[in-house]
Design brief:
Layout: H1 25-34, H2 38-59, H3 65-94
Length: 97
């Protein structure tokens, strides 16, 4: 009969340490602000660019430096604001009772 050696038996499932749970909302908000959220930012930038083109077409703006700079700010502002809304929504979904 073969001998069983207890040290050679490997458990099928290794116990991994549990991830550290963020205790406060401010820590979680800081962690979410460090992430880029590239999908939300890219979608919001595309929507903002469409808005900027629509504004320029509707108002028949002349291509001056001030008008171009103002229209370039529309996609950037929309992307940043929708990212903030996304982070706020994630935080409220996490701590909703």
């Amino acid at each position: 009969m073969p001998k069983l050696i207890q040290s050679s038996i490997v458990p099928a499932r290794l116990a991994l340490p549990a991830p550290k749970v963020k205790s406060s909302v401010s820590e979680l908000k800081h962690l979410l602000n460090q992430q880029s959220h590239l999908l939300i930012v890219s979608i919001a930038t595309c929507i903002g660019a469409i808005f900027a083109i629509f504004i320029a077409y509707t108002l028949h703006l002349q291509p001056t430096l001030i008008n171009i700079a103002a229209l370039c700010l529309v996609p950037i502002a929309l992307a940043l604001s929708l990212r903030k809304v996304y982070i706020h929504t994630l935080l409220n979904m996490e701590y909703d009772d």
